[in-house]
Amino acid sequence: xxxxxxxxxxxxxxxxxxxxxxxxxxxxxxxxxxxxxxxxxxxxxxxxxxxxxxxxxxxxxxxxxxxxxxxxxxxxxxxxxxxxxxxxxxxxxxxxxxxxxxxxxxxxxxxxxxxxxxxxxxxxxxxxxxxxxxxxxxxxxxxxxxxxxxxxxxxxxxxxxxxxxxxxxxxxxxxxxxxxxxxxxxxxxxxxxxxxxxxxxxxxxxxxxxxxxxxxxxxxxxxxxxxxxxxxxxxxxxxxxxxxxxxxxxxxxxxxxxxxxxxxxxxxxxxxxxxxxxxxxxxxxxxxxxxxxxxxxxxxxxxxxxxxxxxxxxxxxxxxxxxxxxxxxxxxxxxxxxxxxxxxxxxxxxxxxxxxxxxxxxxxxxxxxxxxxxxxxxxxxxxxxxxxxxxxxxxxxxxxxxxxxxxxxxxxxxxxxxxxxxxxxxxxxxxxxxxxxxxxxxxxxxxxxxxxxxxxxxxxxxxxxxxxxxxxxxxxxxxxxxxxxxxxxxxxxxxxxxxxxxxxxxxxxxxxxxxxxxxxxxxxxxxxxxxxxxxxxxxxxxxxxxxxxxxxxxxxxxxxxxxxxxxxxxxxxxxxxxxxxxxxxxxxxxxxxxxxxxxxxxxxxxxxxxxxxxxxxxxxxxxxxxxxxxxxxxxxxxxxxxxxxxxxxxxxxxxxxxxxxxxxxxxxxxxxxxxxxxxxxxxxxxxxxxxxxxxxxxxxxxxxxxxxxxxxxxxxxxxxxxxxxxxxxxxxxxxxxxxxxxxxxxxxxxxxxxxxxxxxxxxxxxxxxxxxxxxxxxxxxxxxxxxxxxxxxxxxxxxxxxxxxxxxxxxxxxxxxxxxxxxxxxxxxxxxxxxxxxxxxxxxxxxx
Length: 848
Description:
Elements: H1 13-17, H2 63-74, E1 78-83, H3 91-100, E2 104-109, H4 125-143, E3 146-149, H5 161-167, H6 170-184, E4 188-191, H7 202-217, E5 238-243, E6 249-253, H8 264-272, E7 295-304, H9 326-338, H10 348-358, H11 365-382, E8 384-389, E9 394-395, E10 400-409, E11 415-422, E12 425-426, E13 432-434, E14 440-447, E15 488-494, E16 497-503, E17 506-507, E18 517-518, E19 520-521, E20 525-528, E21 533-536, E22 541-550, E23 555-562, E24 568-570, E25 573-578, E26 584-592, E27 598-608, E28 611-613, E29 618-620, E30 628-630, E31 635-640, E32 649-653, H12 660-666, E33 670-673, H13 680-683, E34 688-691, H14 695-698, H15 703-714, E35 718-721, E36 729-730, E37 736-738, E38 751-752, E39 783-786, E40 791-792, E41 794-795, E42 808-813, E43 816-821, H16 825-828, H17 834-844
Parallel strand pairs: 1-2, 1-4, 2-3, 4-5, 9-19, 21-31, 32-33, 32-34, 34-35, 35-43
Antiparallel strand pairs: 5-7, 6-7, 8-10, 10-14, 11-12, 11-13, 11-15, 15-16, 17-18, 20-22, 22-26, 23-25, 23-27, 24-26, 27-28, 27-31, 29-30, 36-37, 37-39, 38-41, 40-42, 42-43
């Protein structure tokens, strides 16, 4: 993974209160998600006839898979599952409803999990939200559901749902839930959590409270009437709360997936295991073993019509529920009775009759989805496959790129390739008749508009508010991810009817580098600072380097820094010339801070001709997810503060991932990253060693390294351990026990318990003012037991809770010191919080 996006600050409440000026310009890039669960294998391998062989509309177009898809098409029953975060969903229930009962099933996660923790890498905040979005999409491909989100931001742990609703824009989040209900049209809504406040996350309770309120008003034409330009009021039949244990309606779930033969329980386990950034990589829950035996789920009615035996009691789950749908229902029933599994093409004539009958059903979001599903079933039965291939997935505004379209028919059914369109514009010059087993290739050229939006998640496009993302095009709320940058429609004529199939240009990579990549729009030049934060002392001057990277050759222009007038920069601008694509060129500026302590956003901009670009290239890379390409604003936070540090050489032992080395380098330290087992030789000459977050949770065989660290401290060094997860007793030289206690209010009063201790005085005098401007939280998983040699340095607590003294503990060890801190420096330092820098400088400077 590459480094974090510059100035991608934590999703904390204090960030917004200080007037966070969102630095992200977002543009569309990826798949059309409302088709996601049925075209998940759009470019997966089918039957190889030649090197030009197109890939299948779906990865699995076997007779069993097509038959199951037809059963899904037949069923109009719809369930929406609602909770707060990625991993809150009950994948067993979603899998049973979607794959066992063939209901249209979706999970609405109010947030994208951006405020959580990450066990795999240092990605946090917006980038973590991007990764968890993809994890949820991948999970739904396994359990068969669809995926939705609202604009709500996961701002970290909340102990009170009223606090959650006050930080989220309640009206906007409620509007999003109503919009999704009207779009998806669920018969039944299921919440994961109760509406009654208790000992759970405030986001959890808030998700249920908002879902219950949305249930009441989604059918009211006077509620959010602006949505009714494209949607219609929709009143679900009932809303439940799903929980373990007895009570309420009991639903037996279990069985096998009729296509693969895999138990639904096993598919649900695999789905949940996609939450790898949260440590579910090896999840084997639900009783383990993946057995398919039934289990019971309890559903407690929150509102709506009671049911005695089944959640769909009193709901017509057939096409008969729609005007003009009875003919569709009859014909689908006939086809299922006589479905030919030996010759799929023999089913096409009746499928086309169904398609004709479907034209008499009013068009809305659900029937449009069903029409697309039926066209894909027809294509599968006809043996029609296709792909649109590009040599490079990355294109630049203003340039042309060539697309090779390939189609193949494997049955003897006459099929004519009528057209391929991009946003309504015809791409191909002539129609073509397809012959069995003979791929037909056609080429087109696409011109990228000069005004084309760069690829970047749509929810990060604009400055975000206190607790919600700002999305100017609210129609995107029903999309979990960006729509394709270049949406294609292929029209094929079969049996006198024209079916339309969605596609997008891709660069074929197979399983390499994140798999096949859709075409995305990038700037011709990108810029980066290499750090989130630049630390200044008032009135000081330091060099700021901007790294230019060319995406195309023969680029010439000028680069400059945009910063407040109180800050001075020299030179004002510099010319550049980059001859080759991929060339890197550092440009150095001298920046002088004002005398007054302040912070500023510094933006790099490059002008080529008459166009100015202000973007960094950032990639979110995980082996279990498709590569995510982002283009945030190329910016760095300049922090002008009075800070001193006595430590010169500091070692860093990686944990789950944080930006501490970059912060220490900004303070002037020489940082050595210590991988693997650390010996006393590795520690020679160091002043201090910092252990990364959750190192005790993610590192194996830490014992020999701890012995070396103990010897290092005994000889006069300082060891600073950052937070680890709860229910863990840390061994010597720490000797303390962690708890789940945390302080979530980032404005909570901090009381100095040992004001004369060196850690609060040298080289920086720490006062209560140093705890202003913190983001998201004070800290987490504070120890609740420690040896008497430790001195608690400070205390804090959330409102109406017990004071916690385990946030910062310091103990002498031989000639040196051992420090344990649950304070969230891993969030504060990348956010440029001055007091956090000053206190952390004192930690590593102990004894110097």
